Amino acid sequence: MDPAVPHFYGYEECESYTVLDQNGNQIMQAGIAFDESVQITDTNVGLNSYNGSGSTDGGFNVKDMLALGSASAAPAPGSYAVAKQTWTLHSSGATVRVNCLDFEATDVTVTNITSTPTVACSRN
Amino acid sequence: MNGRKLFIAVALLLSAGDGHAQFGSQVLDTPVTDVDYSDRTTNILKALAQKYHVVIGASGILTGADNEIVRISIAKGSLKDVFQQLVEKDPRFEWHQTQDGSIDFRLRGKPLPLVDVNIGVFDIDNPQRSDFPNFLVQATEIKAWQSDHHCLIQELIIGRIPANWGHFSLHIRNQPFGTAMNQIASKSGSYFWSAIQYESDPCSINVTP
Q: ipTM for the complex?
């Protein structure tokens, strides 16, 4: 939990990505920077799209936090947000991963659509 | 925790610069070129606010699914043209420029009364991002409105916990909640805010700075 947030009601799931080269071998390098765009395509709780960034850590992985909640109350049952998440390599802008994210009140589902990035994301 | 993989390929991209928020009537004359968005209206507004450094607030009562995708396209024009086309394509919204120069988008016929609640006196120095919206809800009039309407005013956080914003102060004198949000959006550099009542029973409002 982020120490800057004294209370957080909801959930936060950590995703960890390894970075591969074109031959499928892991790139053993820390500090490779990535940009993240999360487009909220459907929600019933007034949420908006957001951007982020990340980089490979000492273990050569990129960590991503997927949270839904607030400092005052957990998401009400039935709350949801569907998003398309696009990761790009910061240095070139190359798209390296596209996910559909289905944030429900108590859990998030990640579906890899990198091979079909134009498909519409929907609730599972 | 799941192990997932990123594949590196080839391409290029863009970036945006920093600066201060634009205010005043001339904001609407800001020239725009190659505007092309296909997205939910509030997503488009957020992107416009951050690209052109114009403070935009969006508010209203919107229950149920919000998944309407709007397509706007302007080869050459002004921000005013963009806003006009946006409400033509998504007539759920109407807009006007406020006295402080920011842009106020509201759901037509479904305004959120909270936005117009007048705050008499409110001062805070160095508000913390993680304490939003609690510090603002402590304003006497907002607290009273919340109590009278039995309304939960919260910021639902999605994705990453937001990083703290820079140091700034807020001094409100006889100004509505919406103006306070405009100031926060301007001073924090977020440029966009939204306040959407998404549930009626119990009343729940999601406010994002």
A: 0.88
